[in-house]
Amino acid sequence: MSGGVIVRVGILAVQGDFAEHEESFRAAARAENSEVAVVRVRLPADLTGLHGLVLPGGESTVMARFMRSHGLAQSVRDWMRASVDHRRQIWGTCAGLILLADKVIDKRLGTGHVPDTEPGQGSRHGIETGQTNDTYRDVDAPQLLGCLSISVVRNSYGGQRDSFESDVFISSNGNALHGDNKQTKVVVTSCRGIFIRAPGIKSFN
Amino acid sequence: MTGAKNVTGTFTLKSGFAQMTKGGVIMDVTNAEQARIAEEAGACAVMALDRIPADIRTDGGIARMADPKRIKDIMAAVSVPVMAKARIGHFAEAQILQALGVDMIDESEVLSPADPEFHIDKSRFTVPFVCGARDLGEALRRIAEGATMIRTKGEAGTGDVLEAVRHARCIRRQIDDAAALDEKERRAYADELRVPYALLNDTVAQGRLPVVNFAAGGIATPADVSLMMQLGVDGVFVGSGIFKSSEPARRAAAVVEAVTHYTDASLLARVSYDLGQPMTAGRLLDFAGKKAWLNAAFGILLPIWHY
């Protein structure tokens, strides 16, 4: 945005880490010495005058249910559709990615079996035992906004015990790779990635 | 390129998990069907239990970790996080729950305590823990042991919000008290609370507990949820309040609305409207009443019998 226009960023404030997103936008604005108005979005009227909308992390089922029941999902779709020259931007983090996708797949833990307890592979006190015989069940979940032509798998890496942190490398061809997938491509930049029960993009549709 | 390897179970991941539940309702469930009702209503996580607190109170006996089959059934039924309770100090139950792959463990006073002296050393686990607290000392001691989420203890299984309010206010007031002290006094206060000075200082600097802080224990209505949120908690646990009420699905949806719109009184009026019978201490009173009546009857009858 140029010409001294105050950028207005809305953050969906239903559940999850919306306050942290708010603080990050304020900090970024201070660092860039630019004026950013950050507003909380809970009802359709809150979209008025926004340049961008952020869908933060949290539980996507909670946010999706809320957005449907308050007419917010339709309002966001209309708000995007009324965007001129792609001036309106929408950004999803974690659960937000799930809300944006046009196909969502649930991955569910647990089969009713007890975990693998092979002799000699028991846990030390408080230390993760490692693999169990959990199987995953793919369930098609209803999509919410359908703004992005991708298939997203919820809980793609598993439950909390599979949550991980890792350096994320952005390569010269724009691919983002996390630690275990490191390749020899030229790394443009890197940052620390925190993957908490994170979704994964399965395919571009 | 340092830290190329993925790491799990770090403090960031454990406290980050708790942060993802903020502004949400965590509901007690005892089977897959209840778990689905809770998820459908908008619960941000469910707590898997053999018996809900109201039944633990009335049934008596020893309350333990839930059967792993029950926990697995609930995990298979929903995609939201599944938590489970371990007895205070029972690190073996916690190890089993971690091996089952639950997303968070509640070291809970609702179950029978297993250790008269020590709580679980939670820093040694990769699974995050939530613990109950009645005051700032308890909260910070649990955090020092590795808890990455705190909840008020309240009075579980009663539908009576009084104790939850008392505990939330107490924690708030003691943080304010600590903030008003100079260094020497604050060191003495840390000793009095039996907590590390650095942790108390960090709490004062943040002006709140340094981890996510929920309300729990006796919350039964959308108004109770709003009350606790306005007292400054990050979200709520609703235990017996949902599935001991006359219309669980509607009440569950209403408390979820309440946690997001806790300052919007007219919306709260709408979601509270004709919500059916809330969870009451009725069963508790009935039980106590019957017992008293029986005792009285025996008191009269026995002498007659002997006579």
From TrEMBL, chain A:
Residues 112-133 are annotated as: Disordered. SUPFAM superfamilies: Class I glutamine amidotransferase-like. The keyword Cell membrane does not apply. Its EC number is 3.5.1.2. InterPro entries: Class_I_gatase-like, PdxT/SNO, PdxT/SNO_CS. It catalyses: L-glutamine + H2O = L-glutamate + NH4(+). The keyword Iron does not apply. It holds the Pfam family SNO. GO terms for biological process: pyridoxal phosphate biosynthetic process; pyridoxine metabolic process. It is an enzyme of class 3 (hydrolase). Keywords: Glutamine amidotransferase, Hydrolase, Lyase. L-glutamine binds at residues 58-60, 154, 196-197. PROSITE patterns: PDXT_SNO_1, PDXT_SNO_2. It comes from the Eukaryota. GO terms for cellular component: cytosol; glutaminase complex. GO terms for molecular function: glutaminase activity; lyase activity. Belongs to the glutaminase PdxT/SNO family. This is glutaminase.
From TrEMBL, chain B:
Keywords: Lyase, Pyridoxal phosphate, Schiff base. SUPFAM superfamilies: Ribulose-phoshate binding barrel. Pfam families: SOR_SNZ. GO terms for biological process: amino acid metabolic process; pyridoxal phosphate biosynthetic process; pyridoxine biosynthetic process. It catalyses: aldehydo-D-ribose 5-phosphate + D-glyceraldehyde 3-phosphate + L-glutamine = pyridoxal 5'-phosphate + L-glutamate + phosphate + 3 H2O + H(+). The active site is at 85 (schiff-base intermediate with d-ribose 5-phosphate). D-ribose 5-phosphate binds at residues 28, 157, 218, 239-240. GO terms for molecular function: pyridoxal 5'-phosphate synthase (glutamine hydrolysing) activity. Pathway: Cofactor biosynthesis; pyridoxal 5'-phosphate biosynthesis. Residues 11-216 form the PdxS/SNZ N-terminal domain. Its EC number is 4.3.3.6. It comes from the Eukaryota. D-glyceraldehyde 3-phosphate binds at residue 169. Belongs to the PdxS/SNZ family. This is pyridoxal 5'-phosphate synthase (glutamine hydrolyzing). It comes from Ridgeia piscesae (Tubeworm). The lineage of its organism: Eukaryota, Metazoa, Spiralia, Lophotrochozoa, Annelida.
